[in-house]
Every structure is written in C-alpha cells, then in structure tokens.
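go over whats below:
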Amino acid sequence: MSARHHSRTLSERSLPVKQWRQFNFFDVQQIKDQRDATKPPEIFQKTDITVSTSGRGNIILADILLNIV
C-alpha cells in the first residue's frame, strides 16, 4: 500500500452511513380532560407515574407503590 493511502483520515474514507428509520405507527394527539380541555386528564394530575408498560393494544401505568392508575 502506498504512503498516501495510509495518511488518509477515517472521515476521508467512504464508509456506509447508518441512519435511523422513522416509522409512523400512531397519530399523535395530546389527550385532554373531559371537563377542562386546557388541562391533562384528572387521572394524570393525581399521581406520580413512575412505571409504564405496554402490549396487545394496552398501556399500563403505575405509581411508586405499584398502584395501577
């Protein structure tokens, strides 16, 4: 190999560029309280959600004492 080849920097070499793919599975909408559209739903105002999980079309939220919201 030539000395010129060794002196090239990593950025000068042609490397494949990895890019994140974006998948839009959901229509994003902010949920609102039924009584007051300027606030989040009451259930989210009362507790500190510390745990969440999802699966099979459901979302489960719980607080630090593992009370399911």
In short: Strands lie at 49-55, 58-63. The longest strand covers residues 49-55. The chain is about 15% helix and 20% strand. The helical segments are 3-7, 42-46.
